## 1
Amino acid sequence: MSRWSNEWSLAPLEPKDWSRAQAGHLLRRASFGARFEELDELTELGPQRAVDHLLAVSSPRDDGALVDRLTPLLALDSVEQLQSGWIHRMVHSPSSLRERLALFWHDHFATSNAKVQSVARMHAQNRLLTREALGSLRELLIGISRDPAMIRWLDNDRNWKDHPNENYARELMELFSLGRGNYTEQDVQQAARAFSGWHTRGDAFYFDARGHDDGEKEILGVRGRFGGEEAVERCLAQPACARFIVDKLARDLWRPDPAPEAIEALAEVLRKADYDIAAVLSTLLRSQAFFHPAARRSLVKSPVHLVVGALRALGGRPLGQSVAQMTGAMGQRLFEPPSVKGWDGGKAWINTATMIARTNFAARLTGLAGAPVAAGVEPAALARASGASDSEAVADFLIDLLIDGQAPLSMRQEIARAVDSASEDEGARLATYLVLVSPEYQLA
Amino acid sequence: MKIDRRRFLTGSAGTLLATSVASATPAWARAAWAGNSSAGPKTLILVQLVGGNDGLNWIVPHGHDAYYRARPSVSIPSGQVLEIDDEIGFHPGCSGLHALWKEGQVSVIQGVGYPNPDRSHFRSMDIWDSARPDLETPRDGWIGRWLANRADDPQSMSALRVGQGPIPLSLMAEGFETPSLQRREDLELLGDDQLADWRARVTRAPRTDGPGLESVRLASRRAWQVSEELNRKSSHYQPKAEYPGSELGQKLSLVAQLMSSGFGTRVFHVALGGFDTHSRQRPSHDALMQILSQALTAFWRDLSEQGLADRVLALVYSEFGRRVAENGSQGTDHGAAAPVVLLGNGFSKPVLGTHPSFESLDDGDLQHAIDFRSIYRTVLEDWFESDAQPVLGKTFPKVDLLS
C-alpha cells in the first residue's frame, strides 16, 4: 500500500487510484450519497473532473440553482413545513454540494426556532446560508451578524450602548470564528460594544445609531472606533480563524481526527484565497488524503444525511412531514438545534433511541412496516433497470448503490437469501431494508 | 445588614460548614437498605439544569440588601420568597420543593463551584460532567468512570438517560453504551420477529474493517436487545401522584415507571433546558422554577407512595450560576458559584454551607466555597459505598450531609 504512504497529502488523487468506490466516497461526503446514474457518471469523469463537476453545479454564481422552493411555504408559518421543505430540496436539488454545505453552516451557526419563533426569519437565514454556502466566510460572518434570526437568538436586539449584552459577541468568538483560548473576556466585552445597536425592525436588520456605542474599543489587540463589521474583520485577521473553520469543516467532510499539519495547510489555502470556501473544498476534495483508506467510513452520518441519502439513492419522494419527524426521532430537528453549539454529531448520533429510530425509518421507507414515509421507492424496479437478473445480482446492486459494494461476505449471502425469500418486489424491499440497517450504512 | 451578623455567627460556630470527615455510613444511606418495600439497588437521579440556572433567583438571598441593589428589575421581592430562614428562601414557584424541604426531604448546598470558573456553557458543562477540569477535551464522565470501574456487566442498564439528543458526558465511558430514551414508545421496533431474525443475521459477523463499524454494529444490536428487554418487562406501574404535563414531569414519570419495573438502573439522567436567561429573565425563569418544582415534587410523592423513595437520591445542578448584577436587558449573564439541591429521605441538615459573600466578588461573580467534586465524593462513598478516588483522581473533603 505504498501509494497511501502519505495519509495527509493534499496532492491531487491520481487517476490510477480512482474507482467506483472512490466516486461513491466522494458523493457521500460532498453530497448526500449517490444516485445510481451519478455513480456511473462520476466514475467515468475521473477524480479531477468529478470534483470540478460537483463544484460547478453548486457554484455560488449559478443563480439558476438558487430557485427557492421554500418561499411558498412561508405562508403556512409552520416550522414543520420548513423542515420538510428543506429536506425535499436536499433530495431533489442538483446543487447537492451546496445543500450539504448549507447543512454544515446551519450546524455551525446553530439557530433554533424554539427561541426565534419566526418561520420567516429562519427561512431568511436558510437563504443566507445556502447562498453563501460555498462563498466567502467574510460574507457569511457579516451576514449572520446582521441576520434577524440570529439577532433574536443571541439577544443582540437587546444590546444597547448603555447596557451591552455580550451573548452574540461571545458566541461569534467562541463558536463561529475563533474557538476557546483565542480571545479574552475583555475581547468579548469590547466586541459586544461594537455590535450594540445592531437590531431588527419588523423582520429586517436595522442599525439603531442611538443605541450604538461608537466610542473607541480594543478588540484582539487593536484599538479603534469599531463597529460590527470591524469586529468581524478583527476575528478574520487572527490566524486562529481559518484554522478553526477548516478544522470544523474537515471533521464534517473528511475524518474525525485530522492531523494538525493538514489543518494548518488547508487553513493557509483558505487565507490565501481570502476566505473563499470553495477554494478550500476544491483542495480537500481532490486530495489523496481525502481518499485515504483511514478516512473512509470514519464519519457517522447525521440523520438528515442518512434520510436524504436513502431517498436520493432509491428515488423516493418524501410524503408530507413524516420524513422531518423521522430525522427528529433520530436526534436532528432542522431549524431546532439543541443549542448554539449545534448538534454534537459523530458518535453522539448513536444511542439506543436513535438506533431504533434509524431501524424504524428503514422499515417505513421500504414499506415493510409502519406508516409509509415516501412514494416511489421500488427497489426491485431499480435493480431490474440496472440489468440485475438473479438474487445475487440484486444483492450486489443494492450493496453497490448504498454502501459502495463494501459488505462482509456473510452479509452479502444473507442479503441474497433475503431477495429470494419472497416475491421479487417483497424480496428486494427486505434486502434494501437490511442494507439500510447495516452498520455500513450508518457511516459516511 | 442583618446578614453579616448571621454569617458571622454560622461561620464561627461552624454548624453549617460543609466539610467534615464522615467515617461511618450515614444514617440516610443506611436507611436506604432498611425500607422493607424498597428492594433494589440504590439509585441516583441527576437533574441537570442546562444553560446556567440563576441560583440567586432559585435559592433567593432575600436577607441581603446587596442582592436587591444589584438587581433592580430581576430580583424576587422579599415578601414573595418562601423562607428557609431570614437570609435565604425558595423562589415563589418552588412551593412543592419548599414543602419537601420542611419535611426534611430536600437539602440545599450553598456556594458550589470550582476554581477558575469557566463562563462558556459547553466548557463548564464538560467540567461538571467529567469532574476533570484539567483535561481540555475530556472523553468520559464521572458516572461513566464509576460504572466502568465496577464489576457489573457493562451491558446491564446501569445508567440510563431519559431525554433526547446526545448522551451527556457524565454518563460516558470507554466501551460502555449508555441507553437513552425519551418516551417508552421510542424503543418500540417496527416489524415482526422474522424481521428481527433477519436483522440479527445481517449484523452477526464482527466488523474488522476499522473501529467505527464494529462500534456501530454493537450499538445497533444493543439497541434492539434493550427494546426487546423493555417489552418483556411488563409494568404494573400506576403513578401514585399526579405528574404535571411538562416534559420534565413526563420524563420523571418514566423514571419512576422504569424503577418500579425493576430495571436495576443505578443512575438516571434527566435535563431541563432554557436557563440561559440573558434577557427578560423573570417570566421565563419564573416558569422554569415552577416546572422544576412541580415535576420534582410529583416525582418524589410518587416514589414515596411506591415505597421507592428510600433508595433514591436526586442531585439538581447547573453548569454555572449567573452574574450578581443584572444586565441591561432585564436578564443576567453567565456567572459562577450557585446552590445545588438534593432530594432524599432523612437529611439531617436542611442547609449546608454559607451564602457566598456579596462583598468579595470575582469579576462580578459569586465565589464558591464548596467544590462540586466534594458532593460527587460524598455521593460515591456515602450513597453508593464505593471508592471515589479512582473516579475523581484527587481527594476532596466530603460534604457533611449527616447529623
## 2
Amino acid sequence: MEVLLPALVRGLGIGSTYALLAVSIVVIYRATEVVNFAQPALMILGAYFTSLFVTSIGLPFPVGVVAAMVAMAAVGALTERVAMRPLVGQPVFAAAMVTVGVLIVLTAVANRLIGPDILTVGDPWGLERLEFGTIAIFQVDVAKIVLSLGAIGAVGLLLKRSRIGLAMRATSLDQETALAQGVDVGRMFSLAWAMSAALAALAGMLIGTGAGGVEATTALVALKALPVIILGGIDSIQGAVVAGLVIGVAESLARAYQPEYAPWLGANFDIIVPYLVLIVSLMVRPYGLFGTPEVQRV
Amino acid sequence: MSTRILSEALTGTSVDLPAGTPLLEADGIELRFGGTRAIDGVGFDVRPGELFAVIGPNGAGKTSIFNCISGVYRPQQGSIRFLGAELVGERPDRIAKRGVARTFQNIELFDNLTVVENLMLGRHQHLDYGVLDAMRYLGRARRAELANRRIVEDIVDFLEIAAQRKLPVGMLPYGVKKRVELGRALAMEPKLLLLDEPVAGMNAEETEDMARFILDIRSELDTAMILVEHDMGLVMDLADRVMVMDFGRRIALGEPAAVQADPAVIQAYLGEPEGST
C-alpha cells in the first residue's frame, strides 16, 4: 500500500493534467474539425504568464492563474484570427499543418521569454504532503485532480447544455448550413480557440507546480495529450478524461513497479507506456473509447 | 401531448407593414459565374403572408435566387430589400437573424445530431445569452434553454416527428428528414420562409403530408413563403402567385391559372409548338 496508493494518486494527478490538455484540443476540434498541434506552445506560454503574474509581478496565486488564463484566451483568439481564419473553407488537413507552423512560432516566442532559467509558478503546494499513517501523498497531485476535473466539468457543461456548444458542433459539421441558422461561424472559431488556450494555460500552470518548474522543454509534456485524444476519441470530452486518467495511472504504475519487477525492460520504460496503451486499444476500437463512429443509414 | 398550438409557440413570425408594401422586393438581380448568366435581370416582390412560387426547368436559376436572398451568393447587380433593409452584401448569418429561414434542395441537416438538437440550432438566434451568461448565470441560461426547448417540442408535435425526436438525423428516412429541415426553419420564427423543393423525390402520400404542413403553417402563422418546386400540381394548388424562369430570365409572373395559359411558359416547358420551326 505504501507504494501503490501514492503511485495511484500521482498517476491520477498527472493523468488529469493530460486530460485537461486533451480537452483543450477536443474543444478546437469540435468547433473546427482541426487537430491543433500548437497546443504545447499555448500550454508553455500559459505557464510563463502564470509565472510572470505571480512570481515576477506578485499577484496572489489564484488571481495570477486567472489572469494568465485570460491573457492566453486573448492569445488564442488572436492566433485564430491571424493564422487560422484565412483557411476557413480550405481542407482541414491544410489547417492542421498551419497549426504546426503556429507551434513553431509560438514555441520560439516562449523560449525567448523563458530564457535559460527554470521559472517557478509560485504555487502554494510545492512539495507539501498529506500524511495518512505511513502513506504520504503530495498536495500538488490533489490540486491537479481537483482543478483539472473542475475546469473540464465546467467546459463540458457549457458545451453540452448551452446554445454555444450546439452552435460549435454545427459549425464543425457544416459551416454553410450553420450560417443559414444565424450562427456567426467566425465567432465560434475565436471562442473555441480562446477557451482552448485558457484551458492549456491552466494545464501549463499545473505542469509547472510541485517539483516541476517551467523551462522551455516542459512543452514536450503536452505531446502526451496526443495518445490521450486518440485513445479517448477526438470529439469526446468524457473520452479525454477517461483516457487521460488511464494513461496517467499506467505511466505512474509503470514507474513505481517496473524497475523492481521487470528491470530487463530498461530504464525510463514508463515514458513509452502511454503509446503502448494506445496501440493496444486502437486494435480493439479504432475510433477511440468514446469517439463518434460515423452515423450512416444502411 | 402539447396543448399549445403553433401560433402561440411561434409569435415572432408576423409582420406589420402598411398595406401595399411588399415584404421582399428584388430588383434587377444579375448573377454571373464567369461568362454564364445564372440570373439575368430578374425582379419580383413578395407580399406579406403570400405564398410565392418560383418554377422553371432545371438550371433556370431558381435555387440561385434563393442563394442570393440568403446571402450565399452575391449578385453583381441589383438589389434585394427585405423589410426595408438591403440584403445584397450582408453575411448569411446576419440575413438569417433578420428573419429569413430556408430549407435546402439536397437536405442540409446535421446528421450526427438528433432531431431535437437540429431544431434547437434553429433557435440559436433566439437564445439571447452570451458566453459569460452561460458561465455565470446558469439560472438565466437554463431558463432560456428550457423555454426554447418547449417551442421546439411544439414544432416536433406539429410535424408529427415525435417518435424520432431523439434519433440522430442521419438514421432517418428521406421524407422525415425533409420534415425536420422544415421544422428547423420554422424554429427560427422566420418572417420569410424559403422552401427549396420541399417535395422533391417524395411519393404521393409524403407529398400530400408536406402540402398539408405548408398550408397549416400558412393558416396558423401567416408566414410569407417562397417556394421553389418542380411538382406543378403542388405549385398550382398552393401558390398565390407564380414566377416562371427560364435560362436565368423571368418569362412570366402572375396567378397560377394565368401563368399556366401563358404561351411563353408552355413553350419553355413543352418546347416549340408544331409547325413553328
